[in-house]
Design goal:
The protein is an alpha/beta fold and 186 residues long. It has two domains: 49 residues; 114 residues, Aspartate Aminotransferase, domain 2. It is built from seven helices and four strands. A four-stranded parallel β-sheet has the order 2-1-3-4, with helices on both faces. Helix 4 runs parallel beside helix 5 and helix 6 runs parallel beside helix 7. The chain is globular, with a radius of gyration of 19 Å. The relative contact order is 0.10. The chain binds pyridoxal-5'-phosphate. Pyridoxal-5'-phosphate (PLP) binds next to helix 4 and helix 5. The site of pyridoxal-5'-phosphate (PLP) has 10 residues, from helix 4 and helix 5.
Amino acid sequence: MKKVYLDYAATTPTYPKVAEAIRPYFTEIFGNPSSIHRFGQDARKAVESAREKVASLIGANPDEIVFTSGGTEADNFALEGVAFANEKKGNHIITSKIEHHAVTECAEFLAERGFNISYLPVDKFGIVDPEDVKKTITDKKKAYISIPMLSKQPPMSRSMRKILALIFYQFPDINFMGLKGLARFI
Ligand SMILES: Cc1ncc(COP(=O)(O)O)c(C=O)c1O
């Protein structure tokens, strides 16, 4: 029987150009980028060049880009890191009811430590209504938002664009985490 793989939201085969671009770093330029010797520094150059490229995709400074080992580490780093670093400023976290458990477990951990968590509903396509985001923000200087950005459904892109516009133009002080969405929004 022919097998069909339908889980591209979880992982995909590596795009051939990506595999080709990364191949030298498995075989020739393999030094530890934190090492001061030449092998390490060659690898370091590649990491810094990648950081600059990612930064330019979203208009950030390279020193604002942090590479992690994967999604769970990024969720913990971003959600708990931002929450604890700004604890005195605000403690409201807005997320959705369909988050990956790496996010919900962070949210539960933060709830136990006094953070106020709002879980927004989604429609049948898994989409958060931007109006719900707006209604749930009680203090525009004190909220952190974590909502999945990735969906193949066009309504998700439309909804996310509205949420992004809302945040950037009306609530510039809140922190926003858009998970897995970069490639869909550039
Ligand atoms: C939002 C989110 N966080 C974490 C993960 C898990 O990522 P990893 O296995 O790289 O830790 C996923 C995986 O799909 C995810 O969608």
